[in-house]
Structures are given as structure tokens and as C-alpha cells.
Amino acid sequence: MNNNNQILFPMVAKTLFGFEEILAKELKLLGAQSVQTGVRNVRFVGDTGFMYKANLCLRTALRILKPIGKRPILTEQDVYKVMLDIPWEDYMTNDHTFAIRATVMMQRAQNSMYVAQKAKDGLVDRFRNRTGSRPSVDKDFPDVSIHLYVTDKFLEVSLDSSGASLHQRGYRTITNIAPINEVLAAGMLLLSGWNGESDFLDPMCGSGTLLIEAAMIACNIPPSLNRKEFAFQKWLDWDNDLYTKIEESALKKVREFPYRIKGYDKAPSAVRKAQQNVQNANLSEFITISQDDFFHTEKQQPEKTLHMVFNPPYGERLPIDVNIFYKRIGDTLKQSYAGTNAWFITSNLDALKFVGLRPSRKIKLFNGKLESKLVKYELYSGTKKIHKLKST
């Protein structure tokens, strides 16, 4: 193992709005140091092995960045100079391809493509000045992916250790019309308090994402175990033995799950797709999916606690009569699912009025660009007053 791989360095984990605290908790549990939350990101410190582990094991991270330079700047022209000064030969060769993505927060300039172009010029000129040749750009499948964060005061240059977004777990090969992002699904589950200590139901399971993420949380399975590659595998300091050791260590922490995870969908095509994705994730022994209309179902084990999380149609991409649909959700929960903690996400905030139940929690999230609410309904056996008396 390379001793340089034990050197600590700062990293940034990107995430979705509303998941910063959950991601910080995940990082601390994994062993990260100096964890600090930002907006849609969490900064932390670790070594190369921890960077591998973060990519493999974090459920609510979209990508892991490794900052390699931060310099003060005044104009977009300064971006070229900063990139020219960075020792790129330490991270790549002429034979590597690269791509640059820029997040620009400058008041004077918001053109991220122009900034990325100036950055590219600085990088290739450094190679050309030293070797007489230059690496090529590949926007689709680069060997080295570079991320710029540009403000009016500074430029931060980072290597993207993940490559494709970490929501691309590798198990979901077929989807339905409105699939939920895997990181959004995992974050919803963690926010709901799901820990694998009861039965679980997704009554509108679509392509099965919530079911699969719920099973991986319950069994403590690394979420990116099925991914084919990470960007760091093409870096000059890639340590295959170290990664294998990290992966084996994570797999030793997989645990048994004695409860049931079940999904319903009324569309036969959705059921088939979900079953295929469950099979891809090697989780068929934990998850059962059946063709059922939630509105004609009831809780299968009335005496047991049930944890329910789902993503109903919003009326955005799937045409429904929203008012009637959400009223039926509320009626079904009240009449057939006593003893259940039911959570669902929706961007149709007006529709919540028709559920006919008072949510005990509302959490602001984004499903894509849609501002949404993750809501919790506690369905008690008997009246709420009796339940409170029993629990005191």
C-alpha cells in the first residue's frame, strides 16, 4: 500500500437540498474528520482509503470532490492563470482525457461555459509548455473530471472522484415514467427514521427504488456496491489493493434483516420492472412485489408496526385527478393502516389539503427542480389520546 494514501486531505460531498445534516451524520459514522455542513454540500477530511469508502458507502452523497487548489481571483481571466499554475502532471498525463465543469457564483459573470473554456486553456497550455503536446477533452467519458467553484473572491479547483453521479447505483436498468432519484429515495428513508427494525411497505413502488434503498439500509449494504466504476480508478495514484480492502471491510458489516419489505403497484409493467431491478441488486430474498391497488389493500399484520414510505403521482407527469387521488390516500390510511408511520413526498402542496389527516412533520425537499414536501402521518390504533396515555 502506498504510504501517500494515508495522508489526510480535505474533501467535499455534494448532496441534495435538505440532506446536509443526514449526510454529515453518515460521514461521522463512517469516520470522517472535521465535518462541516454547507448548502447542498458537506466538507470533511480523510485519506485516500476514506475517499474510496465515502464513494462506496454514502447513501445521500451525489459526488465526492477532492479540492487541489484554491486561489483568490478578480476576473474570469484569472481562472486561466490559476489553472496554468496547478501541477497537473501530478494528477494526469498527456494520454488522459479530461472534462471541466464550472459552478459560477460571480456577480460580474455567470457564463460557466466561458469560465470552463479559460480553465481548459490554462490546463492544456501547462502541458504544451512542458511536453510539447496536450491531453484531449472528452465531455462524455473523461479519464479525469475537474470541477470548478468560482466566486467573486476565489476559485476552488477540485478533482471529481466519483465520475457519474453516485445516485447511479448500478442496479436500476429499467424505469417507469417518473422514477425517483436513488439519493432522494435514500435520504427520504433516513429522514423518516427507517432503520430496518420493522416491516416496510411502499404501496406505489414504481420501479422499486425505495424498496431497494430500504433493503440496503436495513441490511447495511453499501449503496454503490453494484457500480461498475468510479472516476478515482483512472487516477495516477489508484490503489486497487486498498480499494479491495475497503470493500471487503464494508461487506463484513452487512447484517441480517428479520422483517419483510413489500411493494405494491397496480401496473403490471411497473411490477415487472421493479422485480427486475430488485434482482439486479441481488435483494430478491428481502423484497416481495405484487400487483395491487393500494386503495383496495389493508395492513397485513394489524398487530405489528409498519413503516411506509412512498412517492405518489403529483399530477405533473402522470395524469390523475389530484383532489380525488389524495383524498383516497387519506381514506385508505385511516381505514386500513392503523399502527403505521406513513411518509410520502409530493410537490403538489394543495393536494395535501385533501388527505384529510394532519401531518405530524413536513420537511422541505426538491424532487428534481420541483419544490416538494416530505410529510409524515401517524396512524394510531384507537384514538390518539389513548395512544398517548399508553406511551406515558
Report on the architecture of this protein:
This protein is α/β, with parallel strands linked by helices. The chain has two domains: about 5-160, 2-Layer Sandwich (VC0802-like), CATH 3.30.2130.30; about 180-220 and about 230-390, Vaccinia Virus protein VP39 (Rossmann fold), CATH 3.40.50.150. It has helices spanning about 20-30, 50-55, 75-85, 110-130, 180-190, 210-220, 240-250, 270-280, 320-335, 385-390; strands at about 10-15, 35, 40-45, 65-70, 95-105, 135, 145-150, 155-160, 200, 260-265, 285-290, 305-310, 340-345, 360-365, 370-380. The strands form two sheets. It has an eight-stranded mixed sheet with strand order 2-3-1-4-8-7-5-6. A seven-stranded mixed sheet has the order 11-10-9-12-13-15-14, covered by helices on one side. Helix 2 packs across helix 7 (about 240-250) and helix 5 packs across helix 6 (about 210-220).
